[in-house]
Amino acid sequence: MWRDLRKNKTQFISIFLMSLLGMLVFVGLDSESAGAGHAADVYYAQYNLCDIWISGAGFSDDDIRTAKKIKGVADVEKRLSLTGTAEDFNDAYVYANFLTSGNINRLLLYDGVPYQEGEEGVWLEEWFARTNNIHVGDPFSFKIDSMKFEMTVKGIIDSPEYVYYVSEENTMYPNYSKCALVFLSADSFPDQVNMIYNQLVVDVDDAYTSDASVDAIKGRLEAAFDREDIAVTDRDQNLSFATFDAEVKQHQAMGIMFAAVFLAIALLGIVTTMARVTAGQRTQIGTLKALGFSKATITLHYVSYGFVISALGCIAGAWIGYLTMPPWILGMFKGNYLIPDLKGAMTTKDIVATAVAIIISTLVSFFACRKELKDVPAVTLKPPAPKKVRHSAIEKSRLWLKLDFSTQWNLRDVFRNKMRSMMGILGVVGCAMLLICGFGCFDSIGGLVDKMYGELMTARNKIMLSADAGYDYAYDLAASYRGQMIEETSVELISKTAKKSGSATIIDKGNYVHIQDRDLKPVHLTRDGIAMTMKMANMLGVDVGDFIKWHKVGDDEWQYTRVSQIYRDPSIQGITMYRSVYEQMEFDFHPTAVLTNRSVPASLTDEDEVTSVLNVQEMKRAFSEQLEILNAMVYVMVLAAVLLGVVVLYNLGVLSFVEKTREVATLKVLGFKSQKIRGILQKQNIWLTVIGIALGLYAGWFMLYVLCTTVSDTLDMYPIISVPTYIYSIFGTFLVSIGVNFMFSGKVKTIDMVDALKGVE
Amino acid sequence: MSEKEKTDQELEVVDLEAEEETEEKAAEEKNVLIEFKKVCKKYSQGEHEFYALKDASLTISEGEMVVILGPSGAGKSTLLNLLGGMDSATSGEIWFDGNDLTTYSDNQLTQYRAQNVGVVFQFYNLIPTLTAYENVALMKDIKNDTMDPKEALSAVGLADHMHQFPSQMSGGEQQRTSIARAIAKNPKLLLCDEPTGALDTGTGKEVLKLLQEMSRSKGRTVVMVTHNSFFADVADTVIRVKNGGIQSVVHNDKPKDAEEINW
């Protein structure tokens, strides 16, 4: 047995590697995602993450009583959620929550004292505290509109409600060192200001936490309140919960996809290799049978190859995957998701999957060698009948006669070994697909950034205004910097079928803001209604001409407005309108930013009315630098692509070369030069590679398209594949394919011509 | 060595001496095509060394039909490989048409095979994915003045089977295709390795007849390696090999026709 293994070592090694890779990726990603999911579930349960949020203009204790009466509701708590800035920390964005009892969404305490209702002080998020070197007992001050809060840090914490959050300045990627999350007791709110609780958090009884029950409770809550100014949302609509959930699910899906590809290749490898081994040992099998070995014994012998190799590969892969992937990926999670105790967990699914993979491999090797084993010894002892070759359709054409020998030979060889050819093409497709998709990710993100800061917003600087800055201040600023005033605000939108929150952009005269239609062609914003982003329109199920209800968050009154245009925006989903349209609805235009191409002195931020000045170049750079996970993903894809290409093509190369040894030796005896024979062999490879690349380019585009469109609710990404990406991918695939083939065709020289004179083995 | 074998050998040695004179005469009559001078071929397997051929000397004239006879492992395959330029000698000289093959580079040997040698294999070695016609047409790729494939196939009586694949033909038909492929090159030397080894008697005889024709009417030099001693009767010259050496060279004045022999 060991002799057979050594003789076919390349094939067996590649089967081993493919089983190993398949299980490595599958178990790696599965244990990683299962572990991450589990850690999150434990965290959510232990710290009592709320199930439903009710946001609105104001809630009283009566409202709490109303909510508590509803069947399935375990507990309700009111709170005030606001945003502000921390001037001492580079104008960091601040999410401030003024809590009451704090029993729902309890805080995970790292240092200091636990949250206590009525206690003066601030509980600060751990990442921000650590990266900004803030400790318990240090002062921490921040501003909400004109209110200044000067507090002492009482505790360093994390919240189950905020495992993922982004500031409004950078909605694409979290940066927890520049975005602070703080919790305070409602008593800390200044007495002279009238405090309105704007949120209720609802904890659902453990018996009612299924999706359907939560939906039913949401319905009952909406009915009970019967107010139009509230939004009732559940966990799936919560940015933090949904983002993490989607991430986990994406990894699971990716694991299954990668594993399927690798395992399919391993199985194909087993089929071809086992068929070859048993066919090569036909006479030996016949002899063994003639000697009286039972069919079962012989079958067992050959099936054990498939079993041993795949078992070794699968188990090693599962183990390595479990040990390496979760720490690596979860390590990258650390800056993205604030969840304690993230570690991989092996699930029964992983064990079952490993067992199933081994069983399938064993079964496949059984079927592959059964063919040779079922014949009676007398037949098996004779050399096999030559494979049937038929004239294919193309040969009937006149063209065929004009083809040279090598083309004819290669064409027939391809058709005669359909399975092998298909596998070869598949390997190339996989390689090209992963390369295209990997490099395409860079292109698409790059394109997105260029679009955001180059086509849609063409100003070089964005001066962010505080809530204190009045219209006059903004007007003067715009006048002195030749800028354009805009107002950006959060809105809630309701169609006949759905309710979504989004953002509204109201633009004044100027030409720094542009919109693009569905086909990404620039269009002018019209004045006969509001324009809505395509993604938002899809989610709401509305089209041009439909009316929607909307209001600014915190407003009681609803607007009923016609959607006059659909446009696309990669990063912000919501609506855009002209100031005149906005003012017709009797809103006051309240600029929140001024866009300008002029350079802005740093001293401008010293003014109370200016919170920060965003420089587009810096934003672009910061954005690109933050895409660490994406980079890692691309590297994995490129590595997988090359590995896949090399292993598949090498395996096939060995197979096809071994099959052709005799023919090659014959050609040599007949007087063909080694160089020429290499050319002939390479020719077929080039055809298959070209076909594979052509299909792979399309598959890669499709994969990228799927990735882009499913990435998240707020991102409207579209696949962009640049010319260099095409060139790299095509060139890279060719390099792998030709390179691997070159290793074999080099062996033509070493083939002993005397082999040709010997009988069929 | 058994008593009988000893006697055989002595007898043949006598034979060899008796024939030497005739041999020289024959050699004068025709042009010498091939000459082996003290050719040795040594193989080593690990520490094991043995001579597959030792000090073999022989001459083959143009247009002759030569049968090399000998038991398995006697060195006849080695002889054939060296003749066909498929292997290189350890020492000695191999002259072909005035050139010493032992001085050739790999490329020159390839060229030699392409231009001068047609090989007929025991197991035909046709390219299974090519039709009979295409298998023969293959030769156009390596040599300029090849025969028309149709003509070559007609010469072996396969004009009707031109577009069949090897798998659709009988063993005899496949071997005839293999011969057609070999002669299509118009080679000076036709080397046959047990050409009837995989065929039944009837078919084998047809193939043998064909080879004899090639030598007789077309004036080609045909060298056939076999362990079947009946074939000695059809040859112009019979070279017997044993234990890596030339045991005897016998000239038949009146070779039999292929139809006349039986095995």
Pick out its properties:
heterodimer, A: 761 residues, alpha+beta, 4 domains, 10-stranded mixed sheet, 6-stranded mixed barrel, elongated, B: 263 residues, alpha/beta, Rossmann fold, 6-stranded mixed sheet, 4-stranded antiparallel sheet, 7 helices, globular, disordered N terminus
Describe the protein's topology.
The complex is a heterodimer of chains A (761) and B (263).
Chain A: H1 2-7, H2 9-46, E1 52-59, H3 61-69, E2 73-86, E3 92-99, E4 108-112, E5 122-125, H4 126-131, E6 139-144, E7 147-158, E8 179-185, E9 197-204, H5 211-225, E10 231-234, H6 239-280, H7 282-290, H8 295-333, H9 348-373, H10 377-381, H11 393-396, H12 398-402, H13 405-416, H14 418-456, E11 461-465, H15 471-480, E12 484-494, E13 499-507, E14 515-516, E15 522-523, E16 530-533, H16 534-540, E17 547-552, E18 559-567, E19 574-578, H17 579-584, E20 593-596, E21 610-615, H18 616-625, H19 628-670, H20 674-710, H21 723-745, H22 754-757
Parallel strand pairs in A: 3-8, 5-7, 13-19, 16-18
Antiparallel strand pairs in A: 1-9, 1-10, 2-3, 2-9, 4-7, 5-8, 6-7, 11-20, 11-21, 12-13, 12-17, 12-20, 14-15, 16-19, 17-18
Helix pairs in contact in A: 2-6, 2-8, 2-9, 2-19, 6-8, 6-9, 6-14, 6-19, 8-9, 13-20, 14-18, 14-19, 14-20, 14-21, 19-21, 20-21
Chain B: H1 3-29, E1 32-45, E2 48-61, E3 65-69, H2 76-83, E4 91-96, E5 99-100, H3 106-116, E6 117-120, H4 132-137, H5 149-155, H6 171-184, E7 189-193, H7 201-216, E8 221-226, E9 237-242, E10 245-251
Parallel strand pairs in B: 3-8, 3-9, 6-7, 7-8
Antiparallel strand pairs in B: 1-2, 1-4, 4-5, 9-10
Helix pairs in contact in B: 5-6, 6-7
Describe the structure in brief.
The complex is a heterodimer of chains A (761) and B (263). Chain A is α+β, with helices and mostly antiparallel strands and 761 residues long.
Can you put this structure into words, describing what you see?
The complex is a heterodimer of chains A (761) and B (263). With 761 residues, chain A is of the alpha+beta class. Chain A has 4 domains: 1-49 and 243-387, no CATH class; 52-208, no CATH class; 403-450 and 618-761, no CATH class; 461-598, Cathepsin D, subunit A, domain 1. Chain A contains 22 helices and 21 strands. In chain A, strands 1, 2, 3, 4, 5, 6, 7, 8, 9 and 10 form a 10-stranded mixed sheet that branches. The mean pLDDT of chain A is 83. Chain B is of the alpha/beta class. Chain B has one domain: P-loop containing nucleotide triphosphate hydrolases (Rossmann fold). Chain B has helices spanning 3-29, 76-83, 106-116, 132-137, 149-155, 171-184, 201-216; strands at residues 32-45, 48-61, 65-69, 91-96, 99-100, 117-120, 189-193, 221-226, 237-242, 245-251. A 6-stranded mixed sheet of chain B has the order 6-7-8-3-9-10, sandwiched between helices. Chain B has a 4-stranded antiparallel sheet with strand order 2-1-4-5. The radius of gyration of chain B is 18 Å and the shape is globular. Chain A binds chain B through residues 385-391, 404-406, 408-409, 412-413, 416, 662-663, 666-674, 676, 753-754, 756-757, 759-760, and chain B through 77, 80-81, 84, 86-87, 107, 110-111, 113-115, 117, 119, 121-123, 125, 127-130, 134, 137-143, 163, 165-167, 181, 185, 193, 198.
